[in-house]
Amino acid sequence: MQTPRVLIFEGSQFQRRLMADLVECNDMRAIAVDGADWIRRAESGGDRPTIVVVDLDQPKRAGFEVVKRYRKLAGKGR
């Protein structure tokens, strides 16, 4: 069985690291980024996560905008 990948959209670097540590303590792979970083990775063909955790109140890019963009990219097979 493949290790679950948890994508964490979080504006705060401290919170990203905290959540990533919790995920990794539970034998899952954490991909902790802010929304802008993930959009760049997704557009370049990055791997799809098993679970997505979103901070809806991000300072650089609104969480709802990230979710909308994610859905659009996921619909294209990414």
Strand and helix order:
EHEHEH
Low-pLDDT stretches are none
Mean pLDDT: 81
Q: Helical stretch count? A: 3
- Strands, count: 3
Compute the CA-based radius of gyration: 12 Å
What distance separates the N and C termini? 21 Å
Q: Which secondary-structure class do the elements indicate?
A: alpha/beta
Portion in strands:
15-25%
The coarse silhouette is globular
Strand order of the largest sheet: 2-1-3
Short description:
With 78 residues, the chain is of the alpha/beta class. The protein contains 3 helices and 3 strands; from the N terminus they run βαβαβα.
Structure description:
The structure is a single chain. This protein has 78 residues and is of the alpha/beta class. The chain is built from three helices and three strands; from the N terminus they run βαβαβα. It has helices spanning 13-24, 35-43, 63-75, and strands spanning 5-9, 29-33, 51-54. β1 (5-9), α1 and β2 (29-33) form a beta-alpha-beta unit. It is globular and about 30 Å long.
